[in-house]
Amino acid sequence: MYEVLIKEYLKRLSLKDINDFANKNGMPLKQGEDKIIYNFIMQNWQEVYKGDGLKTLGTLKGKVSDETYDAIIKMFNMYKDKIK
Description:
By secondary structure, the chain is an all-alpha fold. The chain contains five helices and no strands. It has helices at 2-12, 15-24, 33-50, 53-57, 66-83. Helix 2 (15-24) packs across helix 3 (33-50). The protein starts with a helix and ends with a helix.
């Protein structure tokens, strides 16, 4: 059931949504990182959701700044623990 909700949400996800979320969480993105993150989400959300999320997120290392990568991992761990 959650997969259907996620798919519907992703149909409406925009670069503005990604930037707004990052800014709201005190993580302003560097130029172009929003597009990298957007593409990553669209291509890898199922693996992050069902598989080894940290391993999958590891593919972002080197594609975004170290600060952004560290913030993504921190937020992943924080939100992952909240839904358990």
